[in-house]
Amino acid sequence: MIARVLRSRLKPAAISPRHPGGSTALPSNVAYRLGKLEGMGIIAGRRWLDCGCAEGGYSIGLADRGASHVTGVDPIGARIETARRMAVGRPIEFLVHGAESMPFPDAAFDGVLLNEVLEHVADEEQTLAELHRVLAPGGYLALFSPNRWFPFEGHGIAVRGRDLRFPVPWVPWLPIALTGRYLVARNYWPHELQRLVLDAGFAVERHAFAFPVLEVYPWLPRKAIGWFRQLVPLFERLPVVRRFGVSNFILARRP
Prior knowledge:
By secondary structure, the protein is of the alpha/beta class. The chain has helices at 2-10, 27-39, 57-64, 77-86, 124-134, 176-179, 190-199, 222-237; strands at 47-51, 69-74, 92-96, 109-115, 135-146, 152-153, 157-159, 162-164, 168-169, 203-210, 247-253. It has 8 helices and 11 strands. Helix 3 links the parallel strand 1 (47-51) and strand 2.
């Protein structure tokens, strides 16, 4: 009973996403995020699922980094059509499908990339349960999702039926009771996201943070952006600074 109460208090507030999300697969971002996985030696030679693949930029990145086969799924057909055109000649297939129930056998993949997707799905718990099912024992879940310590709501907000699709300051730091009606996607305190992953049956091997590479919103002069990117590895190591990354990064395994 006590455990159930504690889990309910750690569970992220119920938000119904109203924004399908857009692709973050610009070259610097793909290199930065997949570079984390490549540096751990977990991409090459494995079967990967890119869940919520959008136009397939990360799927292509996985294949180009040595994945033996990549399957990308996304619920929006137009995105999948674009992905298929972009990935010709690579060991990739794309399917139009949602995340909560997928047409794959158990243990079909060695790795799952869930990059800025969980905050948009209809049911977080069912999505994670489905990913647990399709992962082979010992397989990896690489999860990136918004970090509430980052002081901007990157998905924007909706006010009186009007979408403000630009980073809105301070919104993530305010109570959900005040902001919930305006949010178009979820965001997570680090402990909330980790609890979701653990409750789905995964073993968390690493919980870190990803920083913006200022490719979508170039908030600094071009030369300064280059300096900022060079400093990102340092920011990721500094105990206080690291918490203000734009995204949580969780690497988990199916036991």
